[in-house]
C-alpha cells in the first residue's frame, strides 16, 4: 500500500481528532482509515493516537510526524487537484459558512462573479464556534470570518479588513454633538450589543480608549442587521463594521460619532478545510475568491 494514502489518512485523523470524521472527509470506511493508521504505526514503531470514548488524541510522535509532513502533503494534494481540474469539469456543490450579516451583505455579489454554471452553492450560517466546528467536521468547505483561525488545523488567507465605527441614533448624536466622546459619555445611553461578551465593542474600547469594556448592554441580539435597525429607531448606540451600515449612514437614519479617531480594523479571513482542497471545485472557488481579494474587492 502506498505510504501517501496512509499519510493522508493520518493527517485527516490528526486534524479532525476523529477516525469517523476522517473517513467522511476521505470518502472511505472507518475500518479502512483504522487500517491505514495501524499500518503506519507498525512501520514507524510508535503509537500515533490514543483512543478515547469520543475521538482520538495524538501522541508526541504524531505531533512530530504532522509537523514534518503536513505542508508537503498539502502541496502535493493541491498540485494534484490543479491537474485534475484541468482534465475534468469543475462541478458539484460548494459549502460555504459565514455569519448571517456577512452573507446578507456580500454573498450575492461574490457568487455573481463566479461564471462556472456547473457549480452549486450551499450557504450556511454560524458564529465563530459553529464555523470552525463545521469546517473541522467536514460539513463546510470554505468559511468567511473575522475570528483568527488555528493555522495548524486550517488553511486561510486574509482577504480584507472591516472598519469598526460607533453609530448612534439621531437624538443621541445630536446630544453628543461637539462633545469629546468618552466611555463615560457613551455609557449614559443604551448600548445595543451582539451578546454580553461585547464582541467588537470590547476590541474598540481596548484600541481607542485603552481600557476594558465593562458596560452592560440594554439589548442583546445576535444579528448586526437587527442591531442597526434598533439603533436607527432612536434606541441607543453600538459599535459595528462600517460596511454593514453604509446605507443607513447615507440615508441619515444613523450617525457615525467619534469620527476623528483612528478607526480600528478587523481582518476578514477566508478559511478552508485543508482536506477539501483535494476536490478541484473547492480549490477553484478558493482561488477565485483570493483573486477577488487581490483586486481590492473586499476593501
Entry keywords:
299 residues, alpha/beta, Arc Repressor Mutant, subunit A, D-Maltodextrin-Binding Protein, domain 2, 3 domains, seven-stranded mixed sheet, two-stranded antiparallel sheet, 12 helices, 45% helix, 20% strand, elongated
Word description of this protein:
With 299 residues, this protein is of the alpha/beta class. It has three domains: 3-86, Arc Repressor Mutant, subunit A (Orthogonal Bundle); 92-159 and 266-295, 3-Layer(aba) Sandwich (D-Maltodextrin-Binding Protein, domain 2); 162-265, D-Maltodextrin-Binding Protein, domain 2. Helix content is 45%, strand content 20%. It contains twelve helices and eleven strands. Strands 3, 4, 5, 6, 9, 10 and 11 form a seven-stranded mixed sheet that branches. It has a two-stranded antiparallel sheet with strand order 1-2. Strands 7-8 form a two-stranded parallel sheet. Helix 1 packs across helix 2 and helix 4 crosses helix 12 (280-294). The protein is elongated.
What's this entry about, in short?
The protein is α/β, with parallel strands linked by helices.
Strand and helix layout:
Layout: H1 3-16, H2 19-26, H3 30-44, E1 49-51, E2 56-58, H4 60-87, E3 92-98, H5 100-112, E4 119-125, H6 128-137, E5 142-145, E6 154-168, H7 170-175, H8 183-186, E7 192-193, H9 201-209, E8 219-220, H10 224-232, E9 237-241, H11 246-250, E10 255-257, E11 265-273, H12 280-294
Parallel strand pairs: 3-4, 3-5, 7-8
Antiparallel strand pairs: 1-2, 5-11, 6-9, 6-10, 6-11
Amino acid at each position: 500500500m502506498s505510504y501517501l494514502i496512509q499519510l493522508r489518512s493520518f493527517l485527516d485523523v490528526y486534524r479532525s481528532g476523529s477516525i469517523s470524521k476522517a473517513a467522511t472527509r476521505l470518502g472511505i470506511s472507518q475500518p479502512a482509515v483504522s487500517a491505514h493508521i495501524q499500518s503506519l504505526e507498525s512501520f514507524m514503531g510508535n503509537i500515533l493516537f490514543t483512543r478515547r470514548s469520543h475521538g482520538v488524541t495524538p501522541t508526541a510522535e504524531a505531533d512530530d510526524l504532522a509537523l514534518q509532513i503536513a505542508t508537503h502533503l498539502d502541496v502535493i494534494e493541491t498540485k494534484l487537484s490543479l491537474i485534475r481540474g484541468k482534465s475534468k469539469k469543475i462541478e458539484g456543490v460548494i459549502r460555504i459558512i459565514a455569519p448571517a450579516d456577512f452573507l446578507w451583505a456580500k454573498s450575492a455579489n461574490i457568487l455573481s462573479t463566479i461564471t462556472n454554471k456547473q457549480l452549486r452553492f450551499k450557504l450556511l450560517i454560524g458564529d465563530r464556534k459553529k464555523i470552525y466546528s463545521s469546517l473541522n467536521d467536514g460539513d463546510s468547505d470554505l468559511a468567511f470570518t473575522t475570528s483568527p483561525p488555528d493555522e495548524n488545523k486550517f488553511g486561510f488567507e486574509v482577504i480584507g479588513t472591516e472598519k469598526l465605527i460607533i453609530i448612534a441614533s439621531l437624538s443621541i448624536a445630536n446630544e453628543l454633538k461637539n462633545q469629546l466622546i468618552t466611555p463615560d459619555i457613551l455609557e449614559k445611553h443604551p448600548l445595543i450589543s451582539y451578546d454580553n461578551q461585547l464582541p467588537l465593542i470590547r476590541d474598540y474600547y481596548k484600541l481607542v480608549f485603552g481600557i476594558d469594556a465593562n458596560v452592560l448592554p440594554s439589548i442583546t441580539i445576535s444579528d448586526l442587521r437587527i442591531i442597526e435597525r434598533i439603533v436607527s429607531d432612536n434606541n441607543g448606540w453600538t459599535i459595528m463594521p462600517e460596511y454593514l451600515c453604509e446605507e443607513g449612514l447615507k440615508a441619515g437614519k444613523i450617525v457615525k460619532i467619534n469620527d476623528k479617531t483612528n478607526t480600528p480594523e478587523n481582518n476578514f479571513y477566508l478559511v478552508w478545510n485543508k482536506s477539501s482542497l483535494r476536490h478541484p471545485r473547492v480549490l477553484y472557488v478558493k482561488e477565485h475568491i483570493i483573486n477577488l481579494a487581490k483586486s481590492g474587492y473586499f476593501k
